[in-house]
Amino acid sequence: MTEEIHIVGGGMAGSEAAWQAANRGCRVVIHEMRPERGTFAHKTGNLGEMVCSNSFRSDDHEQNAVGLLHWEMKQAGGLVISTAYKHRLPAGGALAVDRERFAEDITDALRSHPNILISNEEVSTLPDDGQWIVATGPLTSDALGQAIARETGTTALAFFDAIAPIVHAESIDMDRAWLQSRYDKGETEEERRAYINCPMDKDTYEAFIDALLAADVTEFHDGETAGYFDGCLPIEVMAARGRETLRHGPMKPVGLTNPHQPDVKPHAVVQLRRDNALGTLYNIVGFQTKMKYGAQADVFRIIPGLENARFARLGGIHRNTFLNSPTLLDSGMRLRSKPNIRFAGQITGVEGYVESAAMGLLAGRLAAAEAAGHPLPEVPQDSAHGALVHHITGGADARTFQPMNVNFGLFQPLEGLRSGRKGRRDRYKAYTDRAKACWSDWLAAQSPAEAAE
């Protein structure tokens, strides 16, 4: 096979697409402008850098759609998911990773692959020939964004992602905080103690909300509008929707018991999740924010246990652009007006590391098969990958299209199963069983040159 596949962007989607295509005999060039040109959110030049959370969310492949994506990616020899499990941290049933070691390992694997070349320059146009996969994620450069807008004849949609702060563990007061996963979830003692919990009584919670609502926040540039993805709302935006919103969201106190005061139920609880293997850094779960840096330290030090907190990274906000994929992409994720170009990852309108990597996996396999002259069977819609790609390329209403996490609401219903909450466990197990069967069949149907490792 002599045709090169060019991949623009070395995040989750671009890294996975490159791995999949290279393992199928294609020569791959990854065009990643970092570190020659940085972004607001990235801190390194590594491929696969995690800029927001360090979590790949649930790994329950029988009852959770994200966990099912994990399972499917592993069956397909996914680089991102296998590396995530290699650098797993205790997180009470979630797949959290040491983000630095994860990105270093992804980078090493791709740099050492004989079929992959990494080129550190900015791509600012949409080429007319050759096979290209655009996987530039939430921080597509202005020049490339303008080229996409010119080609599609539409202004790129945009919302904003906010980043949660990271705290040095040694600065947390464990005489006030304690280690526990919600509902003691986890198979090991380490998993059951994976989170640091900071309790609040009612007065402290009210003072925290007051400070949050009064804090100075980042201003938007002219012409930008604050359209947020609901799964990644800044805490001050949530608080503005109602004073109890945070207490029923990331600060909910359920499933937790304070060993320092076992008879006192906290009014609210702030959780921190380990961010590295050493356990020296913790990120504040669900605390994405657009507060200015000076205000953040003051507000977060109201939290019991964080009065003397030292921050390895404060929160921030960045623009996230995405396509109206239902109108612009075909079922193979190709741009209808320029079929030599595929899109993958968050720019297609999926949300989350796992979903982005999954779309990269599909794009890489589809591009490699096309280069070999052996197009793949259609991705089965009843798989998690298929449900997600079907949604973004035609299943969603283009008029109201917004970024989407994978969820069982995207799956075709099964007949004869009980609806509602009481039937949910059996229904989800049926969805995952069906998905695993059709995904396994799809992989098995591919020719030996394209089959999973």
UniProtKB/TrEMBL annotation:
<keyword id="KW-0285">Flavoprotein</keyword>
<keyword id="KW-0274">FAD</keyword>
<keyword id="KW-0819">tRNA processing</keyword>
<keyword id="KW-0521">NADP</keyword>
<dbReference type="GO" id="GO:0047151">
    <property type="term" value="F:tRNA (uracil(54)-C5)-methyltransferase activity, 5,10-methylenetetrahydrofolate-dependent"/>
</dbReference>
<dbReference type="GO" id="GO:0002098">
    <property type="term" value="P:tRNA wobble uridine modification"/>
</dbReference>
<dbReference type="GO" id="GO:0005829">
    <property type="term" value="C:cytosol"/>
</dbReference>
<feature type="binding site">
    <location>
        <begin position="9"/>
        <end position="14"/>
    </location>
    <ligand>
        <name>FAD</name>
    </ligand>
</feature>
<comment type="function">
    <text>Catalyzes the folate-dependent formation of 5-methyl-uridine at position 54 (M-5-U54) in all tRNAs.</text>
</comment>
<keyword id="KW-0489">Methyltransferase</keyword>
<dbReference type="InterPro" id="IPR004417">
    <property type="entry name" value="TrmFO"/>
</dbReference>
<dbReference type="GO" id="GO:0050660">
    <property type="term" value="F:flavin adenine dinucleotide binding"/>
</dbReference>
<dbReference type="InterPro" id="IPR040131">
    <property type="entry name" value="MnmG_N"/>
</dbReference>
<comment type="similarity">
    <text>Belongs to the MnmG family. TrmFO subfamily.</text>
</comment>
<keyword id="KW-0963">Cytoplasm</keyword>
<keyword id="KW-0520">NAD</keyword>
<dbReference type="Pfam" id="PF01134">
    <property type="entry name" value="GIDA"/>
</dbReference>
<feature type="domain" description="MnmG N-terminal">
    <location>
        <begin position="5"/>
        <end position="373"/>
    </location>
</feature>
<dbReference type="InterPro" id="IPR002218">
    <property type="entry name" value="MnmG-rel"/>
</dbReference>
<protein>
    <recommendedName>
        <fullName>Methylenetetrahydrofolate--tRNA-(uracil-5-)-methyltransferase TrmFO</fullName>
        <ecNumber>2.1.1.74</ecNumber>
    </recommendedName>
</protein>
<dbReference type="GO" id="GO:0030488">
    <property type="term" value="P:tRNA methylation"/>
</dbReference>
<dbReference type="InterPro" id="IPR036188">
    <property type="entry name" value="FAD/NAD-bd_sf"/>
</dbReference>
<keyword id="KW-0808">Transferase</keyword>
